[in-house]
Amino acid sequence: MSTGRDRVLARIRRALADAPEAPEPTRSYATTHTSDDPAAVLDLLHENLADYRAVVHRTTEDDIALLLMRLLAERGSQSVLVPPQLPPHWLSAADPTRIHDRAVLTPADLDQVASVVTGCALAIAETGTIVLDGGPDQGRRRLTLVPDHHICVVRAPSQVVASLPQAMPRLDPTRPLTWISGPSATSDIELDRVEGVHGPRTLEVVLLTES
């Protein structure tokens, strides 16, 4: 016996039987409103990251080890969480104990780590957004959600795009994508901002200029 749902769907099919084919959507909109100049795109990313209360630094391959050493020292970090394939020279000058990610590490173990240093998949200038996809220089999603201090390195210009439409074709939707715009934060009904609710309380972004 036909159910009410079947009867309704049958009526809809009959009503649409003679309907014309839907036209193909047009996508003639601009994919970005930003200059093609890589320096301008990087400046915009820096500005929007800072607007979201991320602490932004700029450096080169020659100086990144000293910069990361200084940032961890200023934080007073005694330990740093390391994804599987973080470039070794990034932390070659750092003093904190390195905690290499392993499947046996629990959220409680990760909560004891002072800082985590990762790479990223992509950064979007117009929205000030960092995208992680669980790549080998980023590690599991929990690495960047539990520790209170996250230092994220963005290679520029290869990992920087101007806009979201430019970012989407470069991302794999089957991977565990995490989109970050500033440190973790929320607001209550009186708009009092609280940081560190469901992620790091402090986000530092290092814009690494490639030679």
TrEMBL record:
Pfam families in the record: LUD_dom
Organism annotation: Streptomyces finlayi
Coiled-coil spans in chain: none
Positions of the LUD domain: 113-208
Source organism, top-level taxon: Bacteria
InterPro entries in the cross-refs: FTHF_cligase-like_sf (IPR024185), LUD_dom (IPR003741), NagB/RpiA_transferase-like (IPR037171)
Annotated protein name in UniProt: LUD domain-containing protein
